[in-house]
Amino acid sequence: MQVKSYDQMIDILTLWKVNLPTYQTEVGATAADITWATNTLDNMVYVRDYTALFEANKKSGFDVKASFFNGPEGSAVSDFAAMPAAVIPHPPLVGGVLYTFRDMIASFKLGPGYTEEIGIALGIDGEPKVPTNPMTLKPTLAAFPAQSGAVVSVVVGGRADSNGWKVEILRSGGSVWQDAGNYTGKSADVHITLTTPGQPEQIQIRVWLRKNNEPYGLVSDAVTVTINP
Questions:
Q1: What is the DSSP string of 151-212?
Q2: Exposure check for the chain: N or C terminus, fewer CB within 10 A?
Q3: Residue 207 near residue 168 (C-beta atoms within 8 A)
Q4: For 199, how many CA atoms within 13 A lie in the half-sphere containing its CB?
Q5: C-alpha gyration radius of the chain
Q6: d(Cα 128, Cα 9) in Å, to the nearest integer?
Q7: Collapsing DSSP states into helix, strand and coil, what is residue 226?
Q8: What pLDDT does 197 receive?
Q9: d(CA 1, CA 106)
Q10: What is the rounded distance in angstroms from the CA atom of residue 167 to the CA atom of residue 190?
């Protein structure tokens, strides 16, 4: 198998995290190999989700630019969205992990007890099928309010094999979460109806994954944002 993409490597490393200790002897893997696979998976998932924030921030930044250039005369221009500092799970990042990964695959295939069945379990033969447990699956959420229009850009990570997600909001002082729409893909612009038209409003926002129109996994952590009219 020729591994070419970032997400493909994440899929296979996810299988290694679960199955490599079981077949360690058969493929000739060392304890250092197992640690490398686990740590590299953690770092790759973090970097993928962190860079997704840049995509949302880019849209927010262009909203600032538009508001500054041709927004209502004399109106206040919101600050640029804050970007949290990166906290790599296992620093430092070392470049070229794909090539180390490919070398390990070649080595495992020469292991003393390697079989096609083991290769499938490790994602080395055939297409990797990543195990997901809906009882523990929890998506990540990043939310960035636009400068105007009562819109918040939402980025959802860790979607596994879900095929959609539902947004819910909790208004300040409220106790009941309200449905704010269903979406697909990794990001979407969510339009919010303000409690008081023309006035900014602070809300909490969270997402539920969906699979075939049914709830899938756990609810995300809630994020607090201020929606701009």
A1: EEEEEEE--TT--EEEEEEEETT--S-EEEEEE-SSEEEEE---SSTTS-EEEEEEEEEEET
A2: C
A3: yes
A4: 6
A5: 22
A6: 10
A7: strand
A8: 92
A9: 10
A10: 8
Burial class of residue 187 (count of CB atoms within 10 Å of its CB; 0-12, 13-18, 19+): middle
Closest listed residue to residue 118, CA positions, set 22, 30, 37, 31? 22
* CA angle (165 as vertex; 160, 166 as ends), nearest 5: 155
pLDDT < 50 stretches in the chain: none
Give the whole-angstrom CA distance, residue 6 versus residue 47.
Answer: 11
Q: What is the pLDDT of residue 132?
A: 64
How far apart, in whole angstroms, are the C-alpha atoms of residue 224 and residue 160? Answer: 24
Cα–Cα distance for residue pair 141/189, rounded to 1 Å? 13
The pLDDT of residue 131 is: 57
Which two tokens mark 148?
């105007």
Per DSSP, helices labelled H in the chain are 6-19, 24-27, 31-70, 97-109, 116-121
The type of residue at 201 is E
Would you state the structure tokens that stand for residue 176, as one six-digit string? 């009941």
Placement of tokens 């860079």 in the chain: 51
Residue 108 φ then ψ, to 5° = -60, -35
11, with CB counted inside 10 A (0-12, 13-18, 19+), is middle
Which residue, 43, 54, 177, 59, is CA-closest to 100? 43
3-state secondary structure of 70: helix
Residues in the chain: 229
pTM of the predicted structure, to 2 decimals: 0.60
